[in-house]
Amino acid sequence: MGIATIQVIEGNPHLRSLLGWHLQQSGYRVQQSADLVRAREAYQAHQPNLVILDAQLPGSNSLEFCQWIAQQGNSYLLMLSARDNEADIVAGLKSGADDYLTKPFGMREFLARVEALARRLNRLSAPASLTYGSLHIDLVQRRVRYRDEYIDLTPQEFSLLYVLTQVSGKPLSRTDLLQRAWPDAIDNPRTVDTHILSPQEKN
Predict the structure, then answer these.
(1) Chain centre to alpha carbon of residue 57
(2) Whether the Cβ atoms of residue 3 and residue 46 lie closer than 8 Å to each other
(3) What is this structure's pTM?
(4) Based on the number of CB atoms within 10 Å of its own CB, is 70 exposed (0-12), middle (13-18) or buried (19 or more)?
(5) What percent of the chain has pLDDT above 70?
(6) Could you give the C-alpha distances from 182 to 98, 142, 174, in angstroms and in order?
(7) CA torsion angle for 73, 74, 76, 79 (degrees, to 10)?
(8) Model confidence over 27-59: pLDDT tens digits?
(9) Cα separation of 76 and 98, whole Å?
């Protein structure tokens, strides 16, 4: 579970590149900006789910930009700052930052902060249903409808279908499906074959 797009706004090119690399390795899509002028344009173009903002960008007012991001209402914001006194932290949080991390910081802590914000975002944005053409999946009632006809699925078949809809057509191995769709560890990958074939056999 992860945030789709993260915008990193950091004046230090080495730190910006390092943060971007680690985020990409963690499975996020990353857009990088060196200053607030280009950052605003990139934000409007990409609509990121999370913004990571350097509070000390030269010649810029990061607090005002933070307020602008908060007004958009579309993204969480993690502020990075070398200022660790209480007044600066409070000012950053009151400007709209959802979290505040002081420099220098460890990469493990940074990624943990990002992951915590990702969990908050996913809880807020989890859809009640999914629609793919004529296929409608009710995630609350765990029911599936194709056109105007409801399809009877076992709980495990429903979980398998849900996992397949999340990968946007990307092929998954039997092992991947077992890890994502089965609540308990199963050693036999052929279990997947049985569940995929069983709906066809019902018809």
Answers:
(1) 26
(2) no
(3) 0.60
(4) middle
(5) 80
(6) 34, 16, 11
(7) -70
(8) 888 999 988 888 888 888 888 889 999 998 877
(9) 6
Would you say 19 and 78 are in contact if contact means Cβ atoms under 8 Å apart? no
- Calpha distance 29→9 (Å, rounded): 14
- Fill in the amino acid letter for 127: P
Nearest to 85 by CA among 104, 70, 98, 102: 102
Of the listed ranges 2-6, 18-22, 86-90, 147-151, the least confidently predicted one is 2-6
3-state SS string for the chain: CCCCEEEEECCCHHHHHHHHHHHHHCCCEEEEECCHHHHHHHHHHHCCCEEEEECCCCCCCHHHHHHHHHHHCCCEEEEEECCCCHHHHHHHHHCCCCEEEECCCCHHHHHHHHHHHHHHHHHHHCCCEEEECCEEEECCCCEEEECCEEECCCHHHHHHHHHHHHCCCCCCCHHHHHHHHCCCCCCCCCHHHHHHHHHHHHC
pLDDT tens per residue across span 7-24: 999 999 999 999 999 999
pLDDT band at 195 (very low <50, low <70, confident <90, very high): low
Q: Structural domains in the chain?
A: 5-125 (3.40.50.2300), 129-202 (1.10.10.10)
